[in-house]
Write a structure and sequence with these properties.
Strand order of the largest sheet: 1-2
Structural class: mainly alpha
Radius of gyration: 20 Å
Helix content: 40-55%
Largest sheet: 2 strands, antiparallel
Strand content: 5-15%
Number of helices: 12
Distance between the termini: 6 Å
Oligomer: single chain
Shape: flat
Length: 311
């Protein structure tokens, strides 16, 4: 359920060169942001205020965002920050960040990696901006398979993250994928399907099942399975686990479970909301686990996105 609210959010949006810099005390910046927007009833005023302040305090001096509060912006943290603010109805006017994002692209329209291009272009979309140069040639040159061929990279939680990101870029840029690209993406999904109804590069995981179903939905292709595996991943305390019977769960696992439930049109686990809220830290951000750990922009984005989906 959504409503309309007018919130006074002090110490958040600082215009132009008055933006919060790394290490600044938010109390040193008195301007107030009057925000009027649709809001999710999952976010009360305290959570909204503290979350926005957490994100704003991680805006870098030269534009962009970095969760550890040094002037070392990166595209991923910038996207997590801006998209969380979008969900909260609080996207700032920020020319330096826009300029920094535009500068990630080469003059030939290319980015140095899929991850850089994905997060930079997605961030620009949140700001309502387009890249300086046409990225279509670069996008069409991206291989859909992982560099290792058929195994998940060590730093990746999903073998389907790469094709999912590529497809999202096509949608963000409002480009229809060529038939060969569409076929390759669907082949990658089918290759990860298992008899238990889940998807995974090895055993089925909830994160990879979410990516598989999200791809199928985006391409308007009926998804095969998913519900039985989601049921096996239910947990009374965490809401969901990434693999059946394997604990503990982390925020990205619960986010995937809620995402799968929404894609399948089934009610999310009742304990998922409690788990997400318990990941909140005193500084207003969210960490990965209920057992402690540092809040990051990525985990804060997972939390905000999941609470919004639970509304």
């Amino acid at each position: 359920m959504r409503g309309t609210a007018t919130l006074i959010l002090p110490h958040v949006k600082i215009l132009s060169d008055q933006w919060l810099h790394a290490g600044d005390d938010v109390r040193l910046h008195p301007p107030t942001w009057l925000m009027t927007s649709a809001y999710s009833l999952m976010f009360n005023e305290e959570i909204t205020r503290s979350c926005i302040e957490y994100i704003a305090a991680r805006r870098c001096q030269d534009g962009g965002y970095c969760f550890y509060r040094l002037n070392e912006p990166n595209p991923a943290d910038t996207y997590f920050a801006l998209d969380a603010l979008r969900i909260l109805g609080a996207v700032p006017e920020d020319p330096p960040t826009a300029t920094w994002l535009l500068e990630r692209q080469g003059e030939d329209g290319r980015y140095h990696s899929l991850e850089c291009g994905y997060y930079a272009l997605s961030s620009l979309a949140v700001l309502g901006l387009k890249p300086t140069h046409d990225p279509c040639l670069w996008l069409s040159s991206i291989p859909l398979s992982t560099p290792s061929g058929g195994t998940r990279a060590v730093e990746s939680t999903s073998l389907l993250a790469r094709p999912c990101h590529v497809l999202k870029l096509y949608r963000t840029l409002r480009i229809r994928p060529r038939p060969a690209v569409r076929t390759a993406i669907l082949d990658a999904v089918r290759a990860c399907r298992h008899q238990d109804g889940g998807y995974g590069g090895g055993a089925s995981t909830l994160v990879e099942t979410y990516h598989a179903l999200a791809i199928s939905a985006a391409l308007e292709v009926p998804s095969l399975g998913g519900r039985a595996f989601l049921t096996r991943c239910l947990h009374p305390t965490y809401g969901y686990v990434n693999l059946p019977g394997v604990v503990p769960a982390y925020l990205e696992h619960v986010a995937a479970g809620v995402g799968v439930a929404r894609l399948l049109g089934v009610p999310p686990a009742e304990s998922a909301e409690t788990f997400v809220r318990q990941c909140r830290r005193e500084n207003g951000g969210f960490g990965r686990s209920v057992f402690g750990g540092t809040a990051t922009l990525e985990q804060t984005w997972y939390a905000v996105r999941t609470l919004d989906a639970l509304d």
